[in-house]
Amino acid sequence: MNAAAPFAFEDGAYPNRDGILSATGADLIAGDGGIKFTSCDGPYQIMVWARYLKTNDSTICFKANNTGYLAVNIPRAYRIETIDRDVQAAISINSTTQTVDVPEDTVKAIGEGSATDPQQAVLLEMRITGSSGPRMAGQPLNDEALKFNAKLEIGDTKSCSGALVDPYWVLTAKSCFADKPAESNTVAAGAPKDRTKVSVGKAWIMSSSGFTTDATELVPHPDRDLVMVRLANPATGITPVFVSSAAPTTGEQFDVVGYGRTKEGWGSVARHSAAFSVGTTAATGFDLAAKTPADATVCKGDAGASTLRMMVDKPTLVGVVSRAWQGSCLGTSNAELRTGAFSTRVDDQGDWIQRVRALSPGWRTQALLQSGSSVYQGIRLTDGSWTGFNDIQTQGAGSIGAIRSSAVVGMNGDSHVLAVTNAGGLFHAIRKQDGTWGTFGDVFGAANALGNLTSVTASNIGYDLHVVAVADGKAFHTVRNATGHWTPFKDVTSGKVANVTAAATAVVRGELQVTAISGGKAFHTIRQWNDNWLAWGDVAGAAGATGPITSVSTTGSGDEMHIVVATDNGARQYHAVRNFDGTWTPLTEIKSILGTVTAKSVATATVDGEVVVTATTADGKLLHTVRHADRTWATTGTVPLQGLPAAPGAHAITGTWNG
Questions:
Q1: Which of 22, 53, 304, 309 could lock 161 by a disulfide, CB 3.0 to 4.6 Å apart?
Q2: pLDDT (0 to 100) of residue 86
Q3: Residue 362 has pLDDT above 70, yes or no
Q4: Rounded to an integer, what distance in angstroms lies between the CA atom of residue 271 and that of residue 290?
């Protein structure tokens, strides 16, 4: 396979460096392709004079784009001329580096040419800092279907290609950011070591269309040559590419789209593409061979390039270019004749990509589903898609045994999770905003133990987590404050409501509202800000009677508390609102919203000012809908349950905000 080929990132190494040094005496080391050696007989933008040059008149010339960087070693340099370009030069005198600005259309003496302090100087770098010259010609057509393709410029000399998979995220090759990927292709998560500029939606990088911003964060894949690159600003107005879930097959034809070198060009500013055929496939990647080898080769700078299945309606991303032999590419040895490449598979990485996307700023709906012997977490993104569901015990929270139900509260960007085990224990863990988990802690060890625990519910007031646990047929309340301290559990039913089977909490105007189910009926109370509890009231008397309630959930939204219940062994579902003045709207059946279903459990939460309602059903589904602020309902959808080992049972949802 081509998996042994060199990594295909652009390292900036100057093509034919040894040959130019032999011919001119100037060592052109590395650059971004924006400043290139040229004959002084033709058009040029930079001319350098140096005493040791082998050329006529001891000069060497360069063509320069509107931007560019070149690291060189030219001893005894003494003069620089510029045309239509502002240049900043770095020179070394007596082992001390200094910079010299050479405005456009001027000649400046340096080193021995200086009239005030002539000393031997070595020219080290040239950088274009401004230009009044014309833009480069030959701008290609901007194919709207390929606007998601990206170019990444990493530091002064590295560059790669990539694909926009979310307004905030570009997917590319991890090797683009590794120090020495051939030795160890590892990259630290977090901010890039070198400033990275990302351009998206630009068929021609120099054009004013499209979008350019800096990269702020890297999320490397643990064991593939993939990394997600977070953008400082979202690439709005550009449709991200759809990531395919269909595996590549030998003989299939894909298009590869990138910004790398070509046979003649370096520092490419134009997006290019070519058709390739799939060769040998493996679990992590697949070989590529150009359909027309004479015209297409994957070169330096094409690492991260999109490998696309060109569907009738839209292209879909199947892989990301990682390695290539680079035969016939500019700068490659003439002895290298191989032109094959290797692309890393992404078709089986949809959940990893979705979970990284979930770290983007904005509101998310988070769901915890009991399934099998544990609880699984999934996240709904702003575009309506979902991550898969992962076992929270294996994600970092630690093992606490079989779990039968849970509660979740979004607070300050984090998610507070409470889990009830089959053994009757109650545990608490925090999922941080960055997706990492804290370890489960024993709530009973901190807030005193309860017997015969059946369920738990929770809400937050500021940074205080309010927990209501149902145990021994009663409802008990505790508070975990911002420092992690728990108050002792307190019986809040106090004999007023007996044989409690379920409870739900909500917060309205800083007060905790608790609903408890007793004898199949709902009762409601409020904990005021001063820890005073109001008398329990019969919800049926205020909102109308229903059949026996088997599941209940509540949420606060503005000045309202919304309640959703399942009755008659789940066969019917209702919704009502408690207004801040204490009045209730009637409990109204929502069959027209959810359809004819048998609900095993219902849940509700407020997400970005709207009320989300979900239900797990007897036929193994999770349904999702939204009650908008204008009181209309969204069409109910079925959530994909990728990752669940069995049908979902009890569940909980919350809204979380990523800042």
A1: 304
A2: 95
A3: yes
A4: 17
User: Closest Cα to residue 189, out of 229, 153, 231?
Assistant: 229
The amino acid sitting at 47 is M
| Lookup: tokens for 37 | 């050696």
Q: Is the pLDDT of residue 655 over 60?
A: yes
Helix ranges (DSSP H) in 439-506:
443-447
* Beta-sheet strand order (sheet of 651-658): 390-391, 374-380, 362-371, 651-658
Q: What class has domain 358-658?
A: mainly beta
Residue-level pLDDT at 295: 67
Show me where the domains of the chain are located.
1-11+142-357, 32-131, 358-658
| 3-state DSSP assignment of residue 659 | coil
Q: What is the separation of C-alpha 567 from the centre of its chain, rounded to a whole number of angstroms?
A: 40
CA 474/CA 498 separation, integer angstroms: 7
CATH architecture label of 1-11+142-357: Beta Barrel (2.40)
- Number of Cβ atoms within 10 Å of the Cβ of 118: 13
In CATH, the number for domain 32-131 is 2.60.20.30
Q: Which residues of 518-542 are buried (b: 16+ CB within 10 A; e: fewer)?
A: beebbbbbbbeeeeebeebbebbeb
DSSP character for 437? B
**Rounded CA gap, 621 and 307, in Å?**
34
Beta strand pairing call for 285-290 and 306-310: unpaired
| Partners of residue 130 on adjacent β-strands | 86
Cβ–Cβ under 8 Å, residues 2 and 340? yes
Torsion angle of alpha carbons 74, 152, 215, 145, nearest 10°? 160
Q: What is the Cα–Cα distance from 47 to 144, expressed in whole angstroms?
A: 40
Share of the chain above pLDDT 90, in %: 87
Give pTM, 2 decimals. Answer: 0.89
Q: Are 97 and 161 in contact (CB under 8 A)?
A: no
